[in-house]
Every structure is written in structure tokens, then in C-alpha cells.
Amino acid sequence: MKIEALLSYLDDHYSASIGAVKLMDHLLELELDESTLTFLHGLRSEVVQEQEVLHGVIRHLGASPSIMGQTASWLAEELGWTRLHRVPGASPDIALFKALEALLLGVTGKQALWRLLKSLSYDDAYHSALVSVNAGALEDQSADQLSRIEAHRLRMGKKCFCTAHPVGRVHG
User: pTM score, two decimals?
Assistant: First the structure.
């Protein structure tokens, strides 16, 4: 029963990662500066690699990622992208800002996933599935991703919402 609950949790994260990759694919179609494009390509590559690790854990535990979960994630991302990108009069910068905020939330959850898997790797029931997963390194990678996403999010937020030159120092 506990393994099935863990599989459901892992499947949710796997499905969410599919939505994240799809969201980044949409962002990469926008006219963005070279720095942002490089950042998004790198982040997307890391998420795809992490997806492969997660897929391997799910398979090692005797299951496959849920097609229904993947479909629901794809649909939610498509609807979300439409909402992000189709704001009347909004620039692509607003869509990028909102998408970065969504990615920030997703990576925060992913960091918690890796932390949990690191703690479960000592449990006999999960050890063989997790022995080859360096969850500590993946947790650290998530922390680095959060830092990079936040830097880009703040830069975009300033670009989107600052109305004039600041009088004092703008923090962040």
C-alpha cells in the first residue's frame, strides 16, 4: 500500500515535469534575449534529465508513468499557456514573468521530492530502486535552479512593472 502511494506521488511529479518541459518549449518560441534563451535551454535540459531519473525509479518500483496523468498535465499546461500568453495588450515579457513564477513553484516541489527520496533510500523497501539515484545532488541542483529562476523572474518583474527610474536602490 505504501509503495502504491509513493508511486502515485512520483507519477504526479513526473506528469508535472512534462507540463514544465512543454511550458519551456512555449517560452522558447517567444522572441527573448540570448541570456534568457540560454537559461531556458539549460533548465529544460536539466528537467528532461531529471525526468529520466524519475521514470527509472517508477519503472524500478514496478510501474509505468500514468498516461492519464501525462495527458492531464499536458492539457493543464496548454490551458495555462493560453491564459499566460493571451492577455490583451500584454507583452511576451509578462507571459515569461508568470511562467517563471510557475516554474519556481514546480521546482520547489521537485526539491522536496528529491529530499524525500534521499531519506527513503535508507528504507529496505525502496533501497534497490533508489541506490543509483543521487537524490542529494538532485536536491542541490533544484536549489541552484530555484536561484537561477528567481534571478530571471526578478529581472523580468522589474522590466514588466517598474514605471520609472527608482529613487533608491531596488532590492534583488
Answer: 0.83
